[in-house]
C-alpha cells in the first residue's frame, strides 16, 4: 500500500471514529453512518486494512431467520472470553465497517443480511473483510422474493453462497438440518473446514412442508425421515445427497414452562488453536421455541470454532445460557402469556411470523404447552402479508389449515387492507373466518381491536401471528396486553 493510500486510510479512520463519537452524543443516526463516512474517504482498500486489525479475524453471520438472535448469542459467548468488535442488523458494508472501526480486537463478529445479489455484494464483502468464519443459519423463502422474477429463490440462495465463495482459510459453520445450507457447506469442504450443527431430539414437525423443497443438486424431491422445523430435519436424496453427521449435536430436550434443558454433544475443530474440542454437557435455557434452539446451537458451534480459550467453552456456554435474557430477542418475538378474557383466563401466544417457517415455529411453540387439543380450542388472529406477497401467504395458509383452529380472525398485518381482504376470501373457503379491515395508518385502533378480539373470544387459546412491523405493532400490542 502506497504512502498516499496510507494517509487516506488514516484520515478515513479518524473521520470514521469521530463520527462514531458524534453518534454517541446524538442519537438516531444509525449504526452504519461511521462506516459510510469511512468508506467515502477511505474506499474499499482501507476497509481491508482495517479488517486486519482483528488478531484472529472476523466472523460474518447470514441466513433468513435468526441472524440477529444468533449474532447476539455469539457476541455474549465470545465476548465473555475475549475482546471482540461487533455489529448487529447490518445489511451493508457500511455497517460492517462501522463495527470494524471499534478498534483492535481478537475477533470481529458481524451480522450481514443478504436479500439478493442486486442489493448486496456478498462476494465483495468476503474479499474485503477476508473473514475466518462465515456462519449460515438457514435459508427459507421470504419477502425478498419478488413475483415475476425468474427463479428468484435460486438467486437468493446463490447470493448467500457467494458470501463464502472467495474464502480460502477458516471455518464455515453450517446447519446440517437445512439441505440448502448443507449444499453450501459441501461445496466449501474442498477449501476450508466446515462445522456442521444439527438436532437429535424427539420433537417433530408434523405439519406439511411449506414451499417446494428440492434436492439442491439434482432437483428431485427430498425424502425426510424426520422434520424438526419445516424443511430442517433428516433428509436424503436418491442421488446420494444427504444430511451430514453434525460435528455439534443438540440432544435430550426437556421442556417445562419456566425453562428448558438440552444437552450439547460433539467434537468441534477450533480454528484459533487448531485443535478439536470435545463437548458433552447439559445446559439450562429459557423456554423459547425450536427455532431458538437452532439459534443457540449455531452460536455454540461458532463460539467453539473460534474462541482462543477452548478450556473455557463448557463454563462459558453454561453461564451465558443460564443468564440468557429474552430481551436479546427482537420486540416482535413470539411469546406466550396469560390474559384475562370475558370467559376467564386464556393463554395467548403472540409475535411476528412473517414467513412460512417463522409462523410454523410459533404454532409449534404454542403446541408444546397447549397439547393435542390445540385445534378445537384455539382462535387464530392472522395478520396478513402485503400486496405482492402471495408466496408468503401460501406458506402461512398451509400451516394455518393444518393447525385447523376453531376460528380465524383475519387482520391486515402490513399496509394494504385490500390485499388482506383477498387473503381472507381464500382462507374462508377452508376455515371458519371473519375479516377486520383495520388500517395501517390508525395502528392504535388496530392494536385495540386485536385486544378486543382476544378478550371476547370463547377459546381458551389465542394465537396472534403473521406479518407486522416489529415495535410499531408487535412491541406495542404485547406491552398493552401484558399489563
Ligand atoms: Zn439429489
Structure description:
- With about 475 residues, this protein is an alpha/beta fold.
- It folds into 3 domains: about 45 residues; about 280 residues, Mur-like, catalytic domain (UDP-N-acetylmuramoyl-L-alanine:D-glutamate ligase), CATH 3.40.1190.10; about 150 residues, Protein-Tyrosine Phosphatase, Chain A (Alpha-Beta Complex).
- Helices cover about 40% and strands about 25% of the residues.
- It has 15 helices and 17 strands.
- Helix 1 packs across helix 2, helix 2 crosses helix 4 and helix 14 crosses helix 15.
- The longest helix has 23 residues.
- It is globular.
- The structure holds zinc ion.
- The site of zinc ion has 7 residues, from loops.
Key structural traits:
alpha/beta; 3 domains; globular; Protein-Tyrosine Phosphatase, Chain A; UDP-N-acetylmuramoyl-L-alanine:D-glutamate ligase; 15 helices; 483 residues; single chain; nine-stranded mixed β-sheet; binds zinc ion; six-stranded mixed β-sheet
